Amino acid sequence: MKRALKIVGVLVAILVVAVVGLLAATFMGRQSITEGAEAGGFRIVKDGVVSVGVIPVSEREIALVDAGNDKDAKAILAELSRRHLGPDAVTAILITHGHPDHTGGVKMFPQAQVISLEAEKPLVEGRAGAKGPMTRLFPVSPTGITVTKTVADGETFMLGPHRVRVFAVPGHTQGSAAYLVDDVLFMGDAADTKSDGTVIGAPWVFSDSQPEDRASLVALDQRLMRDNEPVKVIVFAHSGVLAGGRAPLDAYAASNR
Question: What is residue 28's predicted lDDT score, i.e. its pLDDT?
Answer without folding.
Answer: 63
